[in-house]
Amino acid sequence: MADSSQKKRESPCARASAGPPKLTVVKGGGKRAALCLKTPHDVARLMASAAAEMMLRRISPLRAHEIQQRGVRALSLFERVKMPNGGESQGALKRELHDLEAIWNAGIERSGKR
Q: At 87, is the secondary structure helix, strand, or coil?
């Protein structure tokens, strides 16, 4: 009985370190590709990235706030497009996504870090 309880208490780190590390090298030359937003998941990922970049002081709080506001608007437009009469929101969604991409990509080009 004591042996089975010890197995349950084994830490995940101890199990993970048993084998060789599994790492994959991604070939990209150290350059980040320009952003392309197509789904609500892409927008949410961008919003999280903007928050992280602001906390790391790579972008200004003003720029992060603008990205967050536009991201919320884009997510709202994604929801409207799904509705039965949402076809008319498609153009507004495309414009919002384009503007959001432009804000993010302009900052990447300006910083020269990416």
A: helix
Confidence (pTM) = 0.67
Amino acid at 43: V
Tokens of 35: 């952003």
CA angle in degrees (0–180, nearest 5) for 78-83-86: 75
Q: What is the mean pLDDT of each run of 10 residues along the chain (114 residues)?
A: 54 59 76 82 95 92 94 95 85 94 79 52
For residue 10, tell me if it sits in a domain: no
Q: How many structural domains comprise the chain?
A: 1
Q: Return the residue matching tokens 């437009």.
A: 77
Residue 6 lies in a domain: no
| Separation between Cα atoms, residue 99 and residue 35, nearest integer Å | 11
Write out the residue range of the structural domain in which residue 88 sits: 39-114
